[in-house]
User: Fold this.
Amino acid sequence: MNNAGIGGSVRKAFKAALVVTIGLTGLGDLPFSAPGFMALASAAESDKPAKEIFGAAKLPAVLSARAIGFYSKGCLAGGIAIPTDGPTWQAMRLSRNRRWGHPDLIALVERLSREAAAQDGWPGLLVGDISQPRGGPMLSGHASHQVGLDADVWLTPMPRRTLSARERETTSAISVLRKNTLHVDPKIWTPAHARLLMRAASYPQVERIFVHPGIKKKLCDTWTGNRASMGKIRPYYGHHYHFHIRIKCPPGMSGCRSQNPPPAGSGCGKQLAWWFTDEPWAPAKPAKDTKPKPKKRHIRLTDLPSACAVVASAPAPASEREVTLGADPIARIAAANASNASAAGFATSSFAPLPATGPLPQPRPFN
Ligand SMILES: [Zn+2]
Assistant:
């Protein structure tokens, strides 16, 4: 099935769910003058670092799905979780509770896992961090991943067996680089890695894929297939244990800001060559003036788009089960159709159960 089909079904399912939840909560859609907003405006909350507020949310905001703001400054309404286990993926670092995203992103990760397993010789995805239940800034890691449109996937293929919850906390991803070099290790790198990355970049809704410059170079030097999406693969620091998928704002979503498209061309020329000079890796020069820098102020709720205050205080669903995407796409689509027919279908549908979350990458990209 093409992606529009799956994404459309997921969206429909979500809308149907909303009709129910909104009916129950009387909240209505964003932007709102919801009761929660007033509560949130209390001085204590508005003074708290936003990462503490969003880092504490265990479940998503029951609102229509919406990515609000920018990848590095925003939040997520109506987030859904990817199940911890699917036929072609396993979510890692469950304790972090970062398995949440916009339904379009969750559907895309599932699609990539299926297609890579079926066609690329990549047995399945180990899924790292996506977003917190309500997105927003995090207490650790990531500057981006705030609006439910960014996902990290390990560059380590999924093992054949199901990892235990403990293994998902303690297993380390494997770097694809040769030690102390900027180049991939031919003993670790495989053509399946290349196929997986090029497939991920090929989806029209994908805006960028971030990888280490050594990986980009390997693709530039060896990929003989269609290179139309090569320019979306962006070199950046880190990203040799995992890669990062960033999708565009879903079409027509007001208040969601996409990044500018990457520069035209494959990005295999001068832009890439720069990464193999000393400049990007040189230690930062000490500042000339010795004036102490003003202490960096924490991002507060009021620094985020105003709808994020509503997201922070909106009601949660009764359980995680209600907001976890079904592991089986066929069952999920059937459930979506059923719940479209009778709006009551959501709470009792076959949306899979399971607890929440993924790896810690390096500083976040904006190239
Ligand atoms: Zn990431």
Observations:
- The pocket of zinc ion is lined by residues 142, 145, 150, 152, 244, 361 (CB under 6 Å).
